[in-house]
Design brief:
The complex is a heterodimer of chains A (220) and B (160). Chain A has 220 residues and is mostly helical. In chain A, helix 3 packs across helix 4, helix 5 crosses helix 8 and helix 7 crosses helix 9. In chain A, 63% of the residues lie in helices and 0% in strands. Chain A starts with 7 loop residues before the first helix and ends in a 17-residue tail after the last helix. The radius of gyration of chain A is 19 Å and the shape is globular. Chain A contains ten helices and no strands. Chain B is built from ten helices and no strands. Chain B is an all-alpha fold. Classes of the chains: A mainly alpha (220), B mainly alpha (160). Chains A and B meet through helix 3, helix 4, helix 6, helix 7 and helix 9 of A and helix 1, helix 3 and helix 4 of B.
Chain lengths: 220, 160
Amino acid sequence: MAAIGDTSAQLSLRDPDVRLMIAVRDDVPGAFEELVEAYQHRLINVMQHLVGRSGDAEDLAQEVFLRVYRARQKYRARCKFSTWLFTIANNLGLNWIRSRQRKPVVPLPAHDSGPLGPRPAEQLVESRDKPPSSRLQQEELADVVRRALDTLNERQRMAVVLNKFEDMNYAEIAEVMRLTTKAVKSLLNRARANLRTALASYVYTNGDPVPAGEDEDSEE
Amino acid sequence: MNEEERATLVAYLDGELDDEAARAVEARISQDPAVRAELESLERTWDLLDYLPRAEPSPSFTNRTISRITAARQASQHSSQRRRRWLLGAAWAAALVLAVVGGFEAVSLLASHEPTDEELTRDLRVLENRKQYEQIDNVDFLKSLDHPDLFGDDDPDVGG
């Protein structure tokens, strides 16, 4: 995380992606393509965990890149590039979820992966060499974890995804989500408790009692 | 375990505590089996997230994104060209309106000009003889009338 008071020059020395973004800002040929290539996996992954559907995640990731491109002339290196990128992604993703909540759609059955059909087995890279029953178990478990993640509200989900998959610390998450670090601490605490409740039967497989009294979310 | 204690435990797992606070949590974990069980269940739950598949972008993602950017850039260029053309047209229209209004004002100013007393005094003789001057086509004709052969000289004997 960039310390407060870092100059643009210091940041561009430390963060190669800041240099890349400055090249995008200066319309250096090929710079934007390089940026898309560098960040598409991370961005789509975060978006998919946030919104749940791969088609929507790609559309949203495209929109994030489009906004980055449109805002390039105003870009000033005040923080790590990834922090800026995920701030845009956070705003866009949360607004998208809220607009969908206002216009509810008919939910698909839990076992249906949507119009694109079943998830390709390739997505479970680690399980490819394992026997079919083990792979099936992994797919089922992935589905259970996916549904557990969906029980979190969108802010908890975003904080979890940034912490777990982007290795962001509380201060970085706070910057991306425009919250205090104290609020992030509370958000992640509630999120972990809610996840544990949702996944209780998968966590306590050795007969340990499930802790009682897990409450609902009310950060801050 | 209350909310605050669990939040501290989660912060410990996330590596967010300073050394002193981390040592205090470690002491509690070693002394209290309930705290240890809480920590383990939180850790196991967190590890389950590793089962989520990593999303892979479709192979055409970069191309589609760049195409969309190119389309947006072209649309923006067309829009700015249209805006430039519109501004140019508006500037010409404004200049035309200004010229018409300015001309009209100038003509009005001249037409409604009231002569001052000084101007009237200066042009008094002309004004008094205006009707006669109107009979005459030009100044050269007037000068030719001044010729002595036309109306004789001013000899006092002739007139008696």
